[in-house]
Amino acid sequence: IEELLIGADVGLEATDRIMDLLREGSGGEDPREFLRAEVLELLGADEPDTKPAPTPRAIIVIGVNGVGKTTSIAKLARLLEGQNQRVLLAACDTFRAAAADQLGIWAERLGVELIRHGDGGDPGAVAFDACSAARSRGADVVIIDTAGRLHTRVNLMEELRKIKRVCVKVLGEGAVETYLALDATLGQNSLVQAREFTRRLEADGIILTKLDSTAKGGIVIAIRQSLGLPVRYIGVGETLDDFAEFD
């Protein structure tokens, strides 16, 4: 079982904890059934709150370059639109060349409105305009794309804090969530990214991308055990519909 857990990307730290539980608690029970129950209990605490979400609300998506933030935002917009929620997109990645254009293509394909400024503009100003537009135009959700960044870049991390402050100022404290996008194929490296990001910026959940590839899903257990963060959404393919709430 220990070998299977490590091979499934659960990671050494989380595997050690699980093995300790198995040794202490399984008794005469089938260890696999005991393990299943423990994992379900661990992840069951992540079930989303059933109370109605504030309207409008903001979802800020953060993460390093290349994890699939922009594509995940488009997929999330599609999912929410399918739930009869009106969505706005905000191009707060004013740093990467053509980032707003890429988001614009998705917005056009989805038939949703995009709020953007020129390249090199202030991401906080884009966030302010987007949240204000959501309020005035009766939108339910504004999803905010941010520039990919390494957690070691202090100025860029401060920029993310500013975006969140602006959203909270316009929409209120309980109406802003931050989701960290992680690439499932990177295994334990994604856990290191998550740990460093959340050390500098509070996150409310994970969007785990590229689970359709060679990735092993055990990373969700490692993230939950090590960081206490729930996995909210998973990306399982390249089309707009290859996206789901994590169960």
Bulk shape: elongated
- Summing up helix and strand content along with how strands pair, one would put the structural category as alpha/beta
**What is the C-alpha radius of gyration, as a whole number of Å?**
19 Å
Strand tally, please? 8
* Order of helix and strand elements from N to C terminus: HHHEHEHEHEHEHEHEE
Note poorly predicted spans.
Answer: none
Cα(first) to Cα(last) distance is 23 Å
Task: Give the spatial strand order of the biggest sheet.
Answer: 3-2-4-1-5-6-7-8
Estimated helix fraction: 40-55%
Overall mean pLDDT stands at: 87
Strand content: 15-25%
What is the overall number of helices?
Answer: 9
Major sheet characteristics:
8 strands, mixed
Report on this model:
The protein is of the alpha/beta class and 247 residues long. Helices cover 46% and strands 16% of the residues. An 8-stranded mixed sheet has the order 3-2-4-1-5-6-7-8, with helices on both faces. Strand 6 (205-209), helix 9 and strand 7 form a beta-alpha-beta unit.
